[in-house]
Amino acid sequence: MSEITVHNQAEEHRYEVVADGAVAGFAAYTRVGDVITFVHTEVDDAYGGQGLGSVLARGALDEVRASGTLRVRASCPFIAVWLRRHHDYDDLLASMPAS
To answer: What confidence category does residue 95 fall into, taking pLDDT thresholds of 50, 70 and 90?
Structure first.
């Protein structure tokens, strides 16, 4: 793979990772107000083991950070684990509502 990009497909409510012009995976989300909740992440088996899930997570979260106003929740297990391992994104985490 030579060119890898991550971009937001807002009309489809997902970030996509594109490798050499082909969609290799996506992170689906919902958005309510200023909170974006990642609900599912998937990388095509043909691209497995190449680190594209991490590239996707980092790219999506970097774009969230660049917005300056959005906060993140992760109901997707992959994004949740990724965030637990990358504390440099802790500032993006939305507080959980009181129960």
So the answer is: confident
